[in-house]
Amino acid sequence: VPGFDPSLSMMTGITPINPMIPGMGLVPPPPPTDVPVVKEIIHCKSCTLFPPNPNLPPPSTRERPPGCKTVFVGGLPENATEEIIQEVFEQCGDITAIRKSKKNFCHIRFAEEFMVDKAIYLSGYRMRLGSSTDKKDSGRLHVDFAQARDDFYEWECKQRMLAREERHRRKMEEDRLRPPSPPAIMHYSEHEAALLAEKLKDDSKFSEAITVLLTWIERGEVNRRSANQFYSMVQSANSHVRRLMNEKAAHEQEMEQAKESFKNALTGILTQFEQIVAVFNASTRQKAWDHFSKAQRKNIDIWRKHSEELRNAHSEQLMGIRREEEMEMSDDDSGDNPSKKLRVDDSALAAQAYALKEENDSLRWQLDAYRNEVELLKQEKGQLFRTEESLTKDQQLQFLQQTMQGMQQQLLSIQEELNNKKSELEQAKEEQTHTQAMLKVLQEKEINVLTVALVNQDREKNSEKRSPGLKSEKEALLIGIISTFLHVHPFGANIEYLWSYMQQLDSRISANEIEMLLMRLPRMFKQEFTGVGATLEKRWKFCAFEGIK
């Protein structure tokens, strides 16, 4: 609220302050005293006002009280009347009251606060009545701020009003930002329960209906009569689980499609980066390089380095994505083992058996509920006379008996299915034990093969024959880099990991070339097999120091 000072208030809930503190008025302060103000002669009908000497210092004034509308005027001529005073000071604004003393001073109250500043301007003027030179007809005016109760009371009222407006504004702002309260939930009745059951079946109204159902259950609305109705509503709520799982699967499929599109876009970007780097490499050859100026060469060199950095970063990102896919594929391949298939089949059969048990339990509960209803109806039937209502109850009893018979038949069929599933589970377990025994035999065979291979390797190491020397300086450089890489990997590294590292240095090298080079130097590099079965892996190690020893 403009003009409201939150640090000032009486009876507004804010800490009160002394109203006599300087600078608390709402009117801006007068101009600084350093600036000289040129005053002129003021002519009135009954008197004349002569300005003071401009070289003299300005007249002093007291601190302005808050909400000041009253001024003290001293130094009036003895013969000055109230009419003359009003004639002089009404030029400053509307005057509401003049209180003149028998001595040479008075108090003037204006309608507004800014009029007081105009009256202060007249301080220091010499007032002369008419053209008389008598001392009683002249005097030097001294105008100063006056402290009046009426001014202070009006200022307090104005501050209270501004404080009320500020509180109202804050309350409106809080009401606007406050979150809306949740809708009221109706009380339970059979009609409302029927409507809620229909809403639970609707996908768009499910979230609203499930909150109502939860509130009813927490309130304790479930009793012997309403148990069946609540059970049917809970069952319809459970039917939405499959819909939610389907939605989750659809979202996962969308995520996989987005990953695939991102990978394709990244490969396209990487190929374009390769083409740009090829252009820069062609430009740095001597044929074209000699024709560029020094500044152009510098720019081409900077661009080439920047493009290579971006290309390497994108290639690393793409390699990471491919590694993740390979790990997922390896997990899928390991999942193709017969033992894991049997585990999956066992879990599926167990899940089916659990679902059938749940259905069996639900049917038993329904049967118990129907029996309870039948007992209630029998009790009501014994109490009431044979009327049309009793006939309708007999029909209901017959209908319930028929439904009970049908449910018993369903229970029998479900029990037969359970027995069949149990027999299938036993057969699957027998097959699993058989396959596990086969797997143990295969693992023993693999261990024998590994021992034979290791013996052959030892024989090759001890043999006098050695591979031919290095063919080129490039092979010597590759051997040095590979030796350094394998030396910092004491547990060895597979050929794919070594090839991914070497490809960053030379993109044209292949994994077969590296493997052939390693096999040609059995004294420097040796190959070991780690793991068993599906986790069997070849690892190369650096063994040159062992040969020297």
From TrEMBL:
Coiled-coil ranges (or none): 234-261, 353-445
Example GO biological process: ultradian rhythm
Gene Ontology molecular functions: NADH dehydrogenase activity; protein disulfide isomerase activity; RNA binding
Keyword Transcription regulation appears in the UniProt entry: no
RRM domain segment(s): 69-148
Highest taxon of source: Eukaryota
Primary localisation category: membrane
Family: Belongs to the ENOX family.
Protein name: Ecto-NOX disulfide-thiol exchanger 1
Organism of provenance: Colius striatus
Lineage: Eukaryota, Metazoa, Chordata, Craniata, Vertebrata
